[in-house]
Amino acid sequence: MSLYKRGSTWWIDFTTPSGARVRRSSETSNKVEAQELHDRLKAEHWRLQKLGEQPRRTWDEAASKWLKETAHKRTHHEDVLKLDWLRQFLRNRVLADITRDEIAAIGARKRAESSNATANRYLALIRAILRKASLEWEWTGRVPKVKMYPEPKRRVRWITPKQAKALLDALPEHQRDIALFALATGLRQGNVVRLQWSQVDIERRTAWIAADEAKGGEDIHVSLCDLAVEVLEGQRGKHLERVFTYDGNPIKYVNTKAWRNALKRAGIADFRWHDLRHTWASWLIQNGTPLYDLQEMGGWKSAAMVRRYAHLAPAHMARHAAVVDGLLRVTSTAQ
Q: Which entry of 56, 188, 194, 272 is annotated as an active-site residue?
């Protein structure tokens, strides 16, 4: 039997010309798709053994090899999530058959639900895997050109406390807790979603992000305000390891349909999840937090990244400008 079912999934079973048996899951409940994969695999084994052709490697094989070879990367978990999303478009696709137009369509799909920068991160991952498959693994020939979207060099998008309240009220409870914690701490999306109880000390009102999980490559100490502590208290007992969960399972994604619908209901446009971090930083600067303190609190590696928020603190800087004003007045009076 070349196809058979286990539960809702079709499995493939056939014998190659050399007598070897191939048995594997098609990873689909669609019989037509399973049959297409079966026929392609069987034909490839025939060409490989009868004609001496090289095996036609698939995207799935390349993605798996990529994850194994880059498991040490700080962004490994992010690659896992990206590849999980990309799988719906590239599953079982032969590397040599992936076209420039196909990649562009994937980028457009991601751009429609997020931003140019986010779409570019996915396109960059596709490009990196295809290049490695071509230049290092020698699994395929020429790599299609991947065109990236333009990104603004500086983008500081923040919302007012009133807008933040409208957004939080529009979110479902589990996402509201995550968004509120992000606003209260300024932590990046990945650090909030993957936060574990071993990283939190509620009694000492502190949390920490290890260097290998921080974008800047250095440990981040997080001082927890009252609201952040309240959010954490509300998560106690829901999961043994992870702080934020949904229906008993760790949360993987936050940029969901529920998030986008909440933005619409709150009347907030052009706002990404990462802009919660911009909002946190902007509020602090507007209320007198020095730039060097903000850099330490937010875990930015360079002062240049923090200077993006300097223009939001004219009142804070006014007292320094007043020093020159006083000196000039003394000078002019003396004359």
A: 188
Instruction: Give per-residue pLDDT as tens, 269-325.
Output: 989 999 999 999 999 988 888 888 888 888 888 887 888 887 777 665 666 666 776
**How far apart, in whole angstroms, are the C-alpha atoms of residue 227 and residue 233?**
10
pLDDT digits (tens, 9 = 90+) for 161-214: 999 999 999 999 999 999 999 999 999 988 999 999 999 999 999 999 887 777
Residue found by looking up tokens 């140019």 in the block: 116
The verdict on whether 253 is a catalytic residue reads no
Round to whole Å and give the CA distance between 180 and 173. Answer: 10
Catalytic residue among 38, 57, 272, 277: 277
| Catalytic residue of the set 40, 65, 121, 215 | 215
Q: Does domain 161-298 have CATH number 1.20.1090.10?
A: no
Q: Is 188 a catalytic residue?
A: yes
Contact 57, 95 (CB under 8 A): yes
Q: Where are the domains of the chain?
A: 3-50, 59-136, 161-298
pLDDT in tens, 206-265: 999 887 777 777 788 899 999 999 999 999 999 999 999 998 898 888 888 999 999 999
Tokens, residue 196: 């574990």
Is 300 one of the catalytic residues? yes
